[in-house]
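User: For a reading group we're discussing how well predicted structures match intuition. Take XRE family transcriptional regulator. Before you show the prediction, I'll give you the sequence so everyone sees exactly what went in.
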Amino acid sequence: MQYTAHIALFFCFVQYIAQIFFTTYSMSQSSTVLQHVGTNIRSLRDERGLSQQELADQAGVSRRTIAALETGQVNISLAKLDAIAIVLGVNFRTIVSAPEHKEHALVNVLAWQGEKEESKATLLASVPSHSQVELWTWSLAVGESYIAEADPEGWQELIYVLEGELTIQFADSSKTIAAGSSIIYASSVTYTYINSGNQVLKFIRNVVY
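Assistant: Thanks. Here is the predicted 3D structure of XRE family transcriptional regulator, as structure tokens, for the group to look at:
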């Protein structure tokens, strides 16, 4: 009973924080996706004495991808970007944050933009836990989806839907979550976020690893 109460309080807090960020930061949010990634990757790679090819090989991506990222041409999945961060010995927050914010828990970085203006993912905050916890806001326009690559074993996601209806499609099943509902699942599998409703979908995503 006490555990259930703590979970309920947690999601109430998440909803409160999310509403603040959606209303307060939406106007000031930069329109440039992952605008600091290129500078950060190049700087971290130079510090560690890695060539573009060496970094690419260790992260499991092509050298062309690294070169494109370093010149500001962002076209990469969040999972692959996290793999690059791991090779460079930093967390996801560090690789996407502005240099002056690398030590801050609050990040507020636009990390993904869909084909439609209403579809986007923003990393709000990231704090150390046993390893790391990330707090995200996501929105998807009607009919839009996001295909996520499998995370490493042990990673989990906690999702709370604020507005609309979210369908999460797994390899052999799917789950539909309505506004005001939540879901917890292991994210070490391929899955897809789908806006299955008839309005803009807004939800909170917590990544625990």
